[in-house]
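the two lines:
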Amino acid sequence: GAVVSQHPSRVICKSGTSVKIECRSLDFQATTMFWYRQFPKQSLMLMATSNEGSKATYEQGVEKDKFLINHASLTLSTLTVTSAHPEDSSFYICSAPLGGVPGGRIGEQFFGPGTRLTVL
Amino acid sequence: QKEVEQDPGPLSVPEGAIVSLNCTYSNSAFQYFMWYRQYSRKGPELLMYTYSSGNKEDGRFTAQVDKSSKYISLFIRDSQPSDSATYLCAMSRNSGNTPLVFGKGTRLSVIA
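prediction for all of em together
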């Protein structure tokens, strides 16, 4: 099946630093990827839609200057948390839809394993 | 009213029990319905995928969609301790690469 990887799986950083999280589709091309944030015991909250070759689309309330998204290629999207603060500590998960992939089902998405960010 | 409602639980059942998990939704435009399982500190993994109304069975898991009632269910038969996880329902409106709308997730514990 389709595989989506994320790196790093866990990161601890000091307040004020920037952190980059990578999301890769390993065996298929993804023109679109989604970035979610999940707080403890909460559901996934969509942050933004990453589009290859164009600007990301951010959900209401998500600061685009703080959460920089770059979809550099058909297999890689990056999320950079700039000037991180303790309230940014969360579990960040990316996903890639398979709707445009041969054999992929409309609406189906594969998720990465997530990145746990802790800002001290 | 939220687009997708799901009781967060927690739900605790003995091993071997039949588990019933449910979601309701308000947007009749949803066409594709999924159930994801998420273990602690892991990414969600797709469990069941259903298009429109009907039932789908896969091993011990059965997914039901009733679009007339805007209600979807996931049944787990002969539940096992390894089924202990959070189960999230998810829905998609149409074709193309649109984001999923998730329920809050139900935390399930199967006690041996």
